[in-house]
């Protein structure tokens, strides 16, 4: 009887640990406030990660870094990375999942300094505010490296970059938003977000923000990725989980 009680006691102590969801390190680019402090994860991203955790029976252990550092750690095999765009070089070293979500890349200007945009060449001679260490697609990078325009790289603080736009330090700022939003919806959201900050800017805040009707890129995918020599099947499991989630999600 004593042995049975001891066995039951050990089961009660050890069983929860045995069935606990395994932890999976997940690297992600940080989003900062104007003071450079990390902001909470975007609600849409959090919802996606929560759904995947349930499907995979894992717990994502988030590690938020500037994008350049997050990419370096991912290449070193520190864990999955979420949100790192695809380019040719990364495909050699990282294995990417299927598309997990879609974004549009919008061009934001001051309302009194808007311009017509149809192709990347329309950015010629302008100063464009971007997040330091991020990648906005091969076409943008090629035009940037050929000096068609100048980039102003800043921390991952939307408020800081939009403030620099209002102060005329740049001509435009690039912002990713979910592809379900229209240019007008993005513009309304940005102006509401920046309203209290504009009051602090003072007389220089003598305009509002405009989002150009045509995004710089449409439906640029958001992916998970992992170093190719560290993929133990997790990418295939993520792909299957994403497919199941989409089957249950109404169109």
From TrEMBL:
What are the TM regions of this chain, as residue ranges? none
The record ties this protein, via SUPFAM superfamilies, to:
Periplasmic binding protein-like II (SSF53850)
- Please state the span of the N-terminal signal peptide per the UniProt entry: 1-20
Keyword annotations: Signal
Q: Does the keyword Phosphoprotein apply?
A: no
Tell whether Signal is among the UniProt keywords.
yes
Source species, domain of life:
Bacteria
Which Gene3D superfamilies does this entry report, sorted A to Z?
Periplasmic binding protein-like II
Protein name per UniProt: Extracellular solute-binding protein, family 3
Please give the organism. Duganella sacchari
């Amino acid at each position: 009887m004593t042995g049975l009680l001891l066995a039951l006691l050990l089961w009660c102590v050890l069983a929860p640990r045995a069935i606990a969801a395994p932890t999976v390190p997940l690297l992600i680019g940080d989003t900062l406030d104007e003071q450079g402090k990390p902001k909470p994860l975007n609600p849409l991203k959090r919802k996606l990660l929560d759904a995947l955790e349930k499907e995979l029976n894992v717990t994502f252990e988030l590690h938020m870094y500037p994008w350049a550092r997050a990419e370096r750690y991912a290449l070193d095999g520190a864990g999955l990375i979420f949100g790192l765009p695809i380019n040719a070089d990364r495909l050699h070293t990282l294995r990417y999942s299927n598309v997990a979500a879609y974004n549009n890349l919008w061009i934001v200007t001051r309302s009194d300094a808007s311009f017509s945009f149809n192709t990347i060449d329309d950015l010629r001679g302008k100063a464009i505010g971007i997040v330091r260490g991020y990648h906005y697609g091969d076409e943008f990078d090629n035009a940037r490296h050929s000096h068609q325009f100048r980039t102003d790289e800043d921390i991952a603080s939307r408020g800081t970059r939009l403030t620099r736009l209002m102060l005329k330090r740049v001509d435009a700022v690039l912002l990713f938003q979910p592809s379900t939003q229209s240019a007008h919806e993005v513009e309304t959201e940005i102006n509401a977000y920046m309203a209290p900050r504009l009051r602090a800017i003072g007389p220089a805040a003598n305009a509002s923000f405009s989002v150009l009707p045509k995004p710089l890129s449409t439906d640029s995918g958001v992916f998970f990725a992992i170093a190719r020599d560290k993929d133990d099947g997790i990418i295939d499991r993520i792909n299957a989980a994403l497919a199941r989630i989409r089957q249950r999600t109404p169109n």
